[in-house]
Amino acid sequence: MHNLTLSDIARALAEKTFSAEELTRSLLGRIQQLDPQLNSFITVTEAQALAQAKAADARRAAGETGALLGAPIAHKDLFCTQGVRTSCASKMLDNFIAPYNATVVEKLAAVGCVSLGKLNMDEFAMGSANESSHYGPVKNPWDLTRVPGGSSGGSAAAIAARLIPAATGSDTGGSIRQPAALTNLTGLKPTYGRVSRWGMIAYASSLDQGGPLARTAEDCALLLGSMAGFDPKDSTSVDQPVDDYLASLNQPLSGLRVGLPKEYFGAGLDSRIGAAILAVVEELKKLGATVKDISLPNLQHAIPAYYVIAPAEASSNLSRFDGVRYGHRCDSPVNLEDLYKRSRAEGFGAEVKRRIMVGTYALSAGYYDAYYIKAQKIRRLIKNDFVSAFNEVDVILGPTTPNPAWKLGEKSSDPVAAYLEDIYTITANLAGIPGLSMPAGFVDGLPVGVQLLAPYFQEGRLLNVAHQYQQVTDWHTQAPSGF
Ligand code: GLN
Questions:
Q1: Is the CB of 298 within 6 Å of ligand 1?
Q2: Average pLDDT estimate for 257-275
Q3: Is the pLDDT of residue 416 over 90?
Q4: Which atom from ligand 1 is nearest to the alpha carbon of 421?
Q5: What is the distance, to the nearest Å, from the Cα of residue 470 to the centroid of all Cα atoms in its chain?
Q6: Which of 113, 191, 195, 422 has its CA 20 to 30 A from that of 173?
Q7: Does any ligand 1 atom lie closer than 6 A to the CB of residue 128?
Q8: 49 Cβ inside 6 Å of ligand 1
């Protein structure tokens, strides 16, 4: 059962091959047996999952037929889940029981998804390795001595190890696409505003976007169709109808114009990854695509701009964790200032503190123009690069990451080395465009991801290209041994 995709599961549930309750029990058993090796779950909600599964079975028995009715998933632990701890992988929120559901959680529950629990992540989604979690690092099922990527590393590891077929994630600078690449999954960051951020604990509000991770593009299409949509509770949510992502999966790719940015294939890229990406291009050509060399000249400025803007927004967003209203509070504060200082000093981990300090510095009077405003100007230039590239091509293709999964601890003492791993993913967040990563081969037994980028609201095009590629290749079906 655990090898089935969401679409397989939908068929099996419709044909009564097994019930949602049987499937849920079987996956809960796998989580109990295998997750101690991975640490992908922070909280397993067994009783709630069984209740949701039984409810889904009852709805099917009463004649309902939705594809996700009874589909097992789990949520990254930054989506608020009513009555269930929502920790953001931080000591700060270790005791926080969310009083309401995030819109994404609510929407997926409404169509009958069964949530098995809350997934590990980098603390407050800051990281590329899932090593900054208060609950300990997540291991990559392809090699337990390596990182799964981050910050949605728990989502990625749990799906890759076949503990769950799909999960939610969030992507501020690559946190869906990068872990998908390092664990052989398909992950989609939607256009900014496509998926409601309401109830998704904020890291950098102008960059954050929730989205699906799964093994196939088809499953991402299935999930996105239910996650996306206008939400009056999120002022940046876009009031535009949701496309039928499943319906466009089978469009032929003849005439598709694929752009290869020369900056994505330069220094810093592992040449074996470069070769795997060019093999994807050859495959797409066989499917009818034409290829064009393009340029995204401001790529070199992306990391410095991102690592000013994201920490700046984080420093503002995280000021709400003050030890007063909710979250960690230090013991016996002597006065209000002591309460603030010690609660925050004890509640936040090193990476979060680093971001708060960088962000506060960049926003402070005297430095605001030199750093924050300048970074915003670069952001506009990066957006303009994409707008002009998409005048010439329909999708942009390149590697998702410059390297395959690295060893646990390898980059943890050098934050800048970890920041450099985000080079190919952060521009989509700065511009707000959608991006997808999908399996594209292996280097030394470690997965390689290829990234596709598209114009605003063209998630359907990304899923279409990925699905067509997955019809003629089998990288995405490969499973790590031992799981
Ligand atoms: N690695 C990037 C960061 O640490 C992106 C994280 C994310 O997308 N949440 O900020």
A1: no
A2: 96
A3: no
A4: 1
A5: 20
A6: 113
A7: yes
A8: no
- Residue 77 CA to ligand 1 center (angstroms) comes to 15
> Which residue has tokens 């920490």?
311
Strand 210-214 and strand 166-170: pairing?
antiparallel
Give the distance from CA 245 to its chain's centroid. Answer: 18
Closest to 436 in 3D by CA, of 452, 457, 447: 452
Please identify, by atom number, the ligand 1 atom nearest to the C-alpha of residue 306: 10
Question: Catalytic pick from 19, 40, 76, 412?
Answer: 76
Active site residue 248: no
Per-chain mean pLDDT for the chain: 97
Average pLDDT over residues 360-376: 94
For residue 175, the CA-to-ligand 1 centroid distance in Å is: 6
Q: What is the pLDDT of residue 258?
A: 98
pLDDT tops 90 at residue 16? yes
- Contacts of residue 63, defined as CB under 8 A and 6 or more positions apart, other chains included, come to none
Closest ligand 1 atom, CA of 172?
A: 8
What residues have CB less than 8 Å from 470, skipping those under 6 apart? 186, 216, 217, 218, 438, 476
- 45 CB near ligand 1 (under 6 Å): no
Per-residue pLDDT reduced to its tens digit, 83-121: 999 999 999 999 999 999 999 999 999 999 999 999 999
* Helix/strand/coil for 410: coil
CB of residue 310 inside a 6 A radius of ligand 1: yes
pLDDT at 415: 85
Check 151, 226, 315, 412 and give the catalytic one: 151
205 is catalytic: no
Q: Is 172 in the pocket of ligand 1 (CB under 6 A)?
A: yes
Q: What is the pTM (predicted TM-score) of this model?
A: 0.98
* Contact call for residues 158 and 147 (beta carbons, < 8 A): no
The number of helix segments (H) and strand segments (E) in the chain equals 15, 11
Tens digit of pLDDT for each residue in 45-65? 999 999 999 999 999 999 999
| Catalytic residue, candidates 128, 152, 175, 315 | 175
Instruction: From the CA of 418, give the closest atom in ligand 1.
Output: 1
Is the torsion defined by CA of 397, 398, 404, 408 positive or negative?
negative
Contact 8, 68 (CB under 8 A): no
Task: Give yes or no: 40 in active site.
Answer: no
Q: 418 pLDDT exceeds 90?
A: no
Q: Is the CB of 171 under 6 A from ligand 1?
A: yes
The stretches of 348-472 forming alpha helices (DSSP H) are 350-363, 374-389, 415-420, 426-431, 459-472
Task: Dihedral sign for Cα 431, 433, 436, 440, please.
Answer: negative
C-beta of residue 164 within 8 angstroms of C-beta of residue 1? no
Predicted pLDDT of residue 414: 87
pLDDT per position as a tens digit, 218-236: 999 999 999 999 999 999 9
pLDDT of 417 higher than 90: no
